Amino acid sequence: MTVRIGIIGIGQQGSMYASVMKNGTFMGMEIGTVEGLELGAVCDNSDERKAWAEKELPGVPFFSDHIEMLDSGLIDAVLVVTPHYHHPVMAMDAMERDLHVLCDKPAGVYTKKVKEMNAMAETKPHLKFAMMFNQRMNPLYLKLKELMDSNVIGEIRRTNWLITTWWRPEGYYQMSDWRATWGGEGGGVLINQAPHQIDLWQWLCGMPTKVSAKAAYGSHRNIAVEDDVTAVVEYENGATGSFITCVHDLVGTDRFEILGDKGKIVVEDSKKIILKTLDESESEISKNLSFEDMKRLFMGGGIGDVITEEVIEFENVWGLQHFDVLKNFAAAITEGAELVAPGSEGINALSITNAMHLSSWLGEEVSLPIDEELYFEKLQEKIEEEKLAKVQEA
């Protein structure tokens, strides 16, 4: 069985998916086409993208209206790669027509709308619904998921992710009118660059129950949305966590730490896992350590008696995980394979993002699940402020 997939939105990201599926090429590399998947049609409302498709995707039907493509009978599934507000709307349009859905990140801009999408998906259990959380296919994070599920470091006490490798120059924000706007994109670094890490964070460590965030809006770039965020969270068991990101660190850091009561995991640059495990829990060591043993530890000796260290390094070719998600999606439809990123889970990362925004707007800690009506109200205020500012500039 071959799944005919249509792509809605063939801008920078969508054209990459189209090239992979039609020509088996990715960033100039020959990687082969996706087994069980063929490009049935593409859709975009840009004349420029239509010209690109005619040249680069010969023989692939082009549509300017996504409903016409969905109703064409040419596709069995759809990949939604449009500005964020459209993600749940277009996904539901496809589900209504009994088409399988793969949605690019994020699941949407606000959870209230994403809940509608998830509710519709529940009424269509025969359809496959997935998210393009490609980093879940990264071998490093698959290994890390295996380690966390095996409880190798015990109960989580603290998580910290410093991810500032998202440097974007001023010109990046001038590429599209919708980019880095409340009305078009629904946010900045949290909604555009960091969703993959926020998804991995909750996938590996669970959902927090409380969020407190300090966000800077247009602090280092000429944009209205957030370009620098520091957030602190609390988990159900009382553990704490932090998430720090920005778009103005040209050097950039990617360091993820998970501390448990039986060890610690450190991920450096998404390329290396450093696993340090204790022979017994830290609480037991603390309770049973003799004074002489404690002196040796403080003097720099004896620590190796209780800690075992393992370093696991990975080769990571950026972008190929997108290819792997497409393969997984096709296999789920044709063979019943388990989805690595079920669409219903897209709301988790978005819930954390919405909580960070709301906390920063209110200047106070918020609990999860957040007040969705309040979030939507505050988002509309941001959109109106943005419109007013543009009128004043003109």
Automatic annotation (TrEMBL):
Source organism superkingdom: Bacteria
State a single Gene Ontology molecular function.
nucleotide binding
Q: What Pfam families would the database entry show?
A: GFO_IDH_MocA, GFO_IDH_MocA_C3
Q: Which InterPro entries does UniProt cross-reference here?
A: Gfo/Idh/MocA-like_OxRdtase_N (IPR000683), Gfo/Idh/MocA_Oxidoreductase (IPR052515), GFO_IDH_MocA-like_dom (IPR055170), NAD(P)-bd_dom_sf (IPR036291)
Residue ranges constituting the Gfo/Idh/MocA-like oxidoreductase N-terminal domain according to the UniProt record:
3-125
Report the residue ranges that make up the GFO/IDH/MocA-like oxidoreductase domain in this protein. Answer: 141-265
Signal peptide start-end: none
Matching entries from PANTHER family are given as:
D-GLUCOSIDE 3-DEHYDROGENASE, UDP-N-ACETYL-2-AMINO-2-DEOXY-D-GLUCURONATE OXIDASE
| Name of this chain's protein | Dehydrogenase
Source organism of this protein record? Vibrio comitans NBRC 102076
Q: Lineage from the top down?
A: Bacteria, Pseudomonadati, Pseudomonadota, Gammaproteobacteria, Vibrionales
